[in-house]
Amino acid sequence: MLEFENASGRFMMLVFVEPHDQADKIRCYPIDHTMARPDQAPWLLFEWGPRHRLMATMPPGRFASACSLAPGQYTFVAKRVSHDPRGAEDSLGTKGTITVQ
Is 52 helix (H, G, I), strand (E, B) or coil? Predict the structure, then answer.
């Protein structure tokens, strides 16, 4: 399970940018986000976006996701969701890395 926290107060787009062969290394399972108890974080639903990158839109707050990652490093970028016609995919964002051993 992965857990993310969006403390920005704005909707953010989370995009995994590396590894390039992530479709073979990341498995996310659809789950019913309404099943979370009040003391649990709601579930974040990922989808495959352009260029076969795993992505999700996060409202403010804490979210969990039922994903499994093969051992390795996974780089993601968090970007503010914008109404810009270029979309969040083309704008700069905050970069982070998850290391799975």
Answer: helix
The phi and psi torsions of 51 (rounded to 5 degrees) equal 60, 25
Q: Which among 80, 93, 74, 88 is positioned nearest to 2, based on CA atoms?
A: 74
Is the backbone peptide bond immediately before 42 cis, with ω within 30 degrees of 0? Answer: no
Q: Are 19 and 25 in contact (CB under 8 A)?
A: yes
Residue tagged 């107060």 (tokens): 9
Instruction: Parse the chain into domains and list their residue ranges.
Output: 2-100
pTM tops 0.70: yes
- Give every residue of the chain whose pLDDT is below 50, as ranges: 88-89
Task: Please name which of 66, 44, 40, 43 lies closest in space to residue 55, comparing C-alpha atoms.
Answer: 44
Other CB atoms within 10 Å distance of the CB of residue 16: 23
30 Cβ partners below 8 Å, 6+ apart?
45
Pairing of strands 47-48, 26-28: unpaired
